[in-house]
Known about the structure:
Layout: E1 7-13, H1 16-41, H2 43-81, E2 89-93, E3 98-102, E4 107-108, H3 109-134, H4 137-149, H5 151-159, E5 168-171, E6 177-183
Antiparallel strand pairs: 1-6, 2-3, 4-5, 5-6
Helix pairs in contact: 1-2, 1-5, 2-3, 2-4, 3-4
Amino acid sequence: MLTANNTEKQELTLSEVKLFNIGTPLLVLVSLCVVLYYLIWGIEPLLWGVQKFFSYMCVPIVLIGLFLNEFFYRLTLAIFCKFPMSTFWYGFNLGQLMKCGDRDIPAGVDYYRLALFLPHLIVGVFPLIFGVVINHPIIFIFGFVFTIASVGDLVLLWEMRHLSSRNAVSELSSREGIAVEDEVSEE
């Protein structure tokens, strides 16, 4: 499809097969962190954390984590692409159980890669490591849950590896993936 500003759009979407094939090794690697926690601190703190996390804390903590993940994603794009925060909208697709949002202005591929990776680090990996280091099972479980939840973003990041830095991308609002705008040369 050729657009008015002389660019061609295509979609890069994630299928269940891609998510399974690329995401499974990531899930195994993250799951090994549970073994590491067990080897360092034993099973008792982990069981206590699972009991507390999944009893009364689960829903508010997951909602806070979803908000933080989306906030850091949008903030990264706002800072590096100089988009005002007002260009973003937030939503949740209940049919696919995924958060969604959209921007009117596509971002450069390099900035979009950074926007996919930074929330994963801040909301997932850092709490995961911090929870192991200080023996705080609730922080560890929070990091574990959000590291697992960001596997889709990491698979998308992997799928974007062949895109040129000259491309511009924007997220799709209805499914997991991105719209890629290629520069088309005039002939």
